[in-house]
Amino acid sequence: MTSVNSIKPAPAIRTHNIEQIIHAPIGETARLCGWVQHRRDLGQLIFITLRDRWGEMQCVIDPAHSEAAHALAEGLRNEYVVAFSGATRPRPEKEVRAYPGGDREFLVDGVELLTAAEPLPFNVEEDVKASEELRLKYRYIDLRRRAMVRAMTIRHKCVSAIRSYLNSHGFLEIETPMLARATPEGARDYVVPSRVHPGEFYALPQSPQLYKQVLMCSGLDRYYQIARCLRDEDLRGNRQPEHTQLDLEMSCATRDELFSIAEGAMHAVWRECLGEELPHPFPRLPYREAMALYGSDKPDLRFGSRIVELSGQAQCIDAAWLKSDLELGKCVHGIFIPGASLSRKQYDEWTAQAKELGAGGLMTIELSGEEPKGSVAKFLTDSLAFAQAAESAEGNAHGTWFMVVGDTPSNYKVLGQLRLALGREFKLIDEGKWAFLWVVDFPLYEASDEPPYVTPSHHPFTMPVAEDQHKLESEDPAELLSIRSDNYDLVLNGVEMSSGSLRINKPDLQLKVLRRIGLSDEQIEDRFGWFLGAYRYGAPPHRGFGQGIDRLVMSLLSLDNIREVIAFPKTASAQCPLTGAPAPIDDAQWSELGIKSR
Ligand code: ASP
């Protein structure tokens, strides 16, 4: 019998990757493997840029050094996979470049073609010319591009920073099933037919919510998972049918304790991925204040221009239509945009935008020059009140008030949207800033158009605050809408990054909350009976959150397209151009599953 020790190790396919050869002493001999990024024939010399995951290296093939290598190199084309043996040497002084490895080149003395490549559907280059559809169809080529490698690398670092932070804080990473009972998060379920139980279906989890709560009932206390969540909803913009989230739950923790864990994880990510320190602690803002100041439950705090009530100051605008609106109890709210000055045409455009958002019109007062300008300047009996309001809101009275009249919630809504658009237009947003914020104390329910006219603002497992729990008995939707909950979102630069809450840990209360969203006792028993059961045998108080990883990585890379941070994303119509999913199944599969297509 051959002993293990007598088996010779195979010779290395590669001795160094490009990062290693860039950092090795010049003169190091090596065997590099990679793709031909680019080939230049300069008469006698051939220059090949060799690319691997770690970088690029200029390789020189000189017939005077190796005729055989030169002969082989003549046949190489873009994206062939090759192994080059040789050694680094300094680049001639005038060719030294500032990028990593720009001080050296690799003089090749052996060439091995590992595999050839057919002509490519598009070039592997940073300034990619191919359409997104083509890039997704040939994703394996697209992923060779530096930007994609960087996105995958940052994504990996982000997740591993989260993992090591949570591991060192006593959390257990626990996997929960993909083939599950429905876990509602407000979307439709993806369902999977069961072959062995014809006519029955699994639901793919919209999140691990119910399982993680049950884990707390089991006493596992601190859980997390980098979880796939599947939600069948109409895809808009940056939505994907499946996304990844950091899903976390902890028992017996105050809100502050949970925030400190979530912030710690973000600190670790920023340090690991960007080498930056984030502020601590993140600011907090109650939902109501967020709506009143920014017209949004996910305010972008990279700039000011908060919403201000100006109904008092509006008494100095002597216009009959405004007076009658104010008499009817309507309010005037405005935002002051420092430095803004509008032409007539721009005013018309902003007015059109305000109307599209639901406002009756837009009033402006520009305070830049001697005399106030703007759409209502000619009605002003006194502009001082507006200058003072600008000074106290923004510390600056040079700029323009943008104002609307209407009921308070719709004014907030219109100004919240205008604020973002104006902030972008007048370059008020500090792009270098990371503005994290906790928005807290959301209402338990939000209004819905269909009976029972309320729907959970987070999900139906969120704890209503103790003082408001009696309101659950009410039949009045307004009363239900006023119930507060221990519910929070983490926002970064105006984007919701995570949401979470304290959970209901008493089965009777859970039953009430589920009934209030229109579920009958039979439906509750059928869908959630198993889950409520877990709370009958001793359940600690617990809370948690889910944090979208895709969005997090987009922020780290300052990207605005979610597909750029996912290796194999779906298109906006939920298809995968690479594999052709979704695809029909054949007759045998239909009958095996015991289902028929209509
Ligand atoms: N399950 C929630 C979500 O996916 C997060 C949470 O409440 O923990 O948004």
The helicity comes to 25-40%
Level-1 CATH class name of the largest domain: Alpha Beta
- Name the CATH architecture of the largest domain: 2-Layer Sandwich
Query: How many whole angstroms does the radius of gyration measure?
Result: 31 Å
Major beta-sheet overview: 8 strands, mixed
Q: Can you identify the CATH superfamily of the largest domain?
A: Bira Bifunctional Protein, Domain 2
CATH topology annotation of the largest domain? BirA Bifunctional Protein, domain 2
**Overall tally of structural domains:** 4
From the N-terminal CA to the C-terminal CA, the straight-line distance is 63 Å
For the largest sheet, list the strands in their spatial order: 6-9-10-21-20-19-16-11
Structural class: alpha+beta
Bound molecules: aspartic acid
Number of contiguous helices: 17
How is the secondary structure organized here?
Elements lengths: L17 H6 L5 E14 L2 E8 L2 E7 L5 H7 L7 E10 L13 E12 L16 H6 L1 H4 L3 H22 L4 E2 L17 E3 L7 E3 L5 H9 L4 E9 L11 E10 L3 H20 L9 E3 H8 L13 E2 L10 H8 L3 E8 L5 H13 L6 E4 L17 H11 L4 E8 L1 H18 L10 E5 L4 E3 L6 E3 L20 H5 L5 E6 L2 E8 L4 H10 L4 H14 L7 E7 H8 L30 H7 L5
Parallel strand pairs: 3-5, 6-9, 11-16
Antiparallel strand pairs: 1-2, 1-4, 2-3, 4-5, 7-8, 9-10, 10-21, 12-13, 13-15, 14-15, 16-19, 17-18, 19-20, 20-21
Please characterize this protein's 3D structure:
With 598 residues, the protein is α+β, with helices and mostly antiparallel strands. It has four domains: 18-115, OB fold (Dihydrolipoamide Acetyltransferase, E2P); 147-280 and 546-568, Bira Bifunctional Protein, Domain 2 (BirA Bifunctional Protein, domain 2), CATH 3.30.930; 304-429, GAD-like domain (Gyrase A, domain 2), CATH 3.30.1360; 442-485 and 506-539, no CATH class. Helix content is 29%, strand content 23%. The protein is built from 17 helices and 21 strands. The chain has helices at residues 18-23, 67-73, 132-137, 139-142, 146-167, 209-217, 255-274, 287-294, 320-327, 344-356, 384-394, 408-425, 477-481, 507-516, 521-534, 549-556, 587-593, and strands at residues 29-42, 45-52, 55-61, 81-90, 104-115, 172-173, 191-193, 201-203, 222-230, 242-251, 284-286, 308-309, 331-338, 363-366, 399-406, 436-440, 445-447, 454-456, 487-492, 495-502, 542-548. An eight-stranded mixed beta sheet has the order 6-9-10-21-20-19-16-11, with helices on both faces. Strands 1-2-3-5-4 form a five-stranded mixed beta barrel. A hairpin with a 7-residue loop joins strand 7 and strand 8 (201-203). The radius of gyration is 31 Å and the shape is globular. The chain starts with 17 loop residues before the first helix and ends in a 5-residue tail after the last helix. Bound molecules: aspartic acid (ASP). Aspartic acid is lined by residues 185, 207, 209, 499-501, 544-546. Aspartic acid binds at residues 185, 207, 209, 499-501, 544-546.
